[in-house]
Design a protein that fits this description.
7 helices, 194 residues, two-stranded parallel sheet
C-alpha cells in the first residue's frame, strides 16, 4: 500500500476513534481498545491494529488510551509498569501469567518467576487473550484454572500511571516498535501539543 494512503487511513481512523472515545475515561478507553483488538492476528513482536503479540496488544491499548508510548515485554510490563498489587476499580489492569519453573516456549527460555504472558483486562472478568492464531476476549475465571494446571501463577495488577508517563516522556522503553505504533505515538503527541 502506498505510504501516503496508509498515513491518511491512519489519520482518519484516529479521528473516528477520537470521536467515539472523547468522553471516556482512560480506563474506559483502554478497555474499548482492547475490545476493538479482538480477532487481530497474533504475530510475535508486533503491535498494530492488524497484528500483535500479547505485550504488544497491551502496549498499543495503553498508547491509544493514554497517549503514552512504551513497547516492552510482558515481564517488563509486570515488573515496571503494572506494579499495583491491589488495583482499584478505576485502575487500568492487566492479568499476568508467571512461570512456576524454567520452561522453553518456542525459541525463548522463561525462568521461574518470569512473566511469560499478559492479557489486558477489558472488563469485569474479561481479558483480551492475544495468542495464536488470533486475539479473543475471554473470561479470566475460565483461563485461570487452565494456566494454573500448566504451572503458571495468575495475578491481576494495576498500572502505575506515573511510571508509564515517565518512561513515555523519556522514550526509554521502546524496542523496535512497528511503524504504525510509532506513527500513532507521533500523531497523539502532536495532538497533545496542539
Amino acid at each position: 500500500m502506498n505510504e501516503k494512503i496508509r498515513d491518511l487511513k491512519i489519520r482518519l481512523m484516529l479521528e473516528a476513534e477520537k470521536e467515539l472515545t472523547e468522553d471516556l475515561t482512560e480506563v474506559q478507553r483502554y478497555q474499548y481498545y482492547l475490545g476493538r483488538m479482538q480477532f487481530l492476528h497474533y504475530v510475535s513482536g508486533k503491535e498494530n491494529l492488524l497484528e500483535a503479540d500479547c505485550s504488544g496488544s497491551v502496549c498499543l491499548a495503553l498508547l491509544l488510551a493514554t497517549g503514552c508510548g512504551i513497547r516492552v515485554t510482558a515481564d517488563t510490563l509486570y515488573r515496571k509498569f503494572f506494579t499495583k498489587k491491589n488495583p482499584e476499580a478505576g485502575d487500568i489492569k492487566a492479568a499476568f501469567f508467571i512461570s512456576n519453573y524454567d520452561r522453553k516456549l518456542g525459541n525463548r527460555l522463561y525462568h521461574e518467576g518470569e512473566c511469560a504472558h499478559v492479557a489486558g483486562v477489558a472488563g469485569t472478568d474479561v481479558v483480551l487473550n492475544c495468542v495464536e492464531p488470533y486475539a479473543v476476549l475471554r473470561s479470566l475465571s475460565d483461563m485461570r484454572p487452565v494456566y494454573n494446571a500448566m504451572d503458571y501463577t495468575v495475578v491481576v495488577r494495576g498500572l502505575d500511571r506515573r511510571a508509564l508517563q515517565k518512561a513515555s516522556d523519556e522514550r526509554s522503553d521502546l524496542f523496535g516498535a512497528d511503524y504504525e505504533f510509532t506513527e500513532f505515538a507521533e500523531l497523539l503527541s502532536q495532538e497533545k501539543g496542539a
